[in-house]
Amino acid sequence: MRILLFCLIIAQFSTCSNKPAEFKPGIWRGVIELQGQQLPFNFEVLKDASGYKVNLINASEKILLDEINVVGDSIDIVLHIFDADLRARINENSLEGSFYKNHDKTYKLPFHATFGEDYTFEKVNDHAASDFSGKYAVQFITDKKDTIVSVGIFTQKGNYAEGTFLTPMGDYRYLEGNVVNNKLHLSTFDGNHAFLFIAEKKNDGTLVGDYWSGKSSHETWTAIENENAVMPNAESLTFLKEGFDKIDFSFPDVNKNLISPSDEKFRNKVLILQIFGTWCPNCMDETKFLAQWYKDNKDRGVEILGLAYERKADFEYASSRVKKMKDRLDVEYDFVIAGTDDKKKASETLPMLNEVLAFPTTIFIGKDGKVKHIRTGFEGPGTGIYYEQFKERFNQVVSELLAENLTSTK
Could you please report the per-residue DSSP string of 279-341? Predict the structure, then answer.
């Protein structure tokens, strides 16, 4: 029955013969076609007695994919904890298929891959007409003419380049690519985000470029090299409205038990609220950090509660996504189902906040039950020194809250 169902799902790619085709172990170069552009990425196929595994590669990051089904000449690769798949036909040294986001029946992007190719945009060499290395003050301009301030950090060796962007909403994680024809090309594919950046350097050193994301999002961007470029204070963007000093809610956990910050479990403890979604790679970076941090620090009198805002309002769908993430990332702290990923609707679930500006957002509550700090966004491991600074500040805030004398009870 399962084989028959799989055949029906991917019949557009396959004759679905009984004998599975070989998914060749080794390095592959994948390409996702989006908005008339080609987004390249590399992945590594492994095979052992348990079956196939794939490592998605973005610069120094490897993301393990271990839910891979091969039936006949068809393959379905489940993309980590995300509700997304690569489905394709295996044709000896190539794959031909599509990238799907399953929560959206209209989301389908062409995908193909070639075995034995280990480059992204261009094979690495030691020559490039321009050097894009440096730190930049960046402005992204959306199609609605909104401006988003960012900091870009790029390194280049020969024509190989890596980097990332920090924005008030979070970072763009691990970007990798090449300098081709005097233009910087960077991309990432982490199983959910498909990002492509291209920019050229003008005579005055200014970068002018385009940014494509997924099926339809497009922005232009400009950048000026500036070693002193900084982001807005992440602890000032989201705040409590006048007249509020606490966060109050009652949301169901994954088993439908109602959870509130005033529960006995959190009494006289420091409580960290994580506003996030399992669809959000930045949120997953933060969850990995918090999961290990909680294991190391839970005996100090601190708790973490994740507030999940998922792609669908359906409780069973949302709780299943959270349960999978919790299991895959080995997270010991608790989660509640708070709403959907629409920021306006998410803001309505927490009316004491000015708004839910970004996923993730982290709220620090003192032992007296009052909100002490709110941090918008997250600087993940792809940001290098900024990630180290985030961890230092995170630990500083928690230590200060734990040291506070309790003057009132919840």
Answer: T-HHHHHHHHHHHHHHHHHGGGTEEEEEEEEESSS-HHHHHHHHHHHHHHTT--SEEEEEEES
Is the peptide bond preceding residue 40 cis, with omega within 30 degrees of 0?
no
Q: Are 170 and 282 in contact (CB under 8 A)?
A: yes
Structure tokens at 144: 């609605």
Half-sphere CA count of 14, side-chain side, radius 13 A: 28
Predicted confidence (pLDDT) per residue in 142-197, tens digit: 988 999 999 999 999 999 999 999 999 999 999 999 999 889 999 999 999 999 99
Residue reference for tokens 């003057």: 407
Pairwise CA distance, residues 178 & 42, whole Å: 13
- 172 exposure class (CB count in 10 Å sphere: 0-12, 13-18, 19+): buried
Distance (Å, rounded) from C-alpha 291 to C-alpha 288? 5
Of 142, 146, 223, 216, nearest to 186 by C-alpha is 223
Token pair in block for residue 141: 């301009």
Per the structure block, which two tokens stand in for 313?
């309002």
Find tokens 């029946």 and name the residue: 105
- In this structure, the chain runs to a length of 410
Rg (CA), the chain: 23
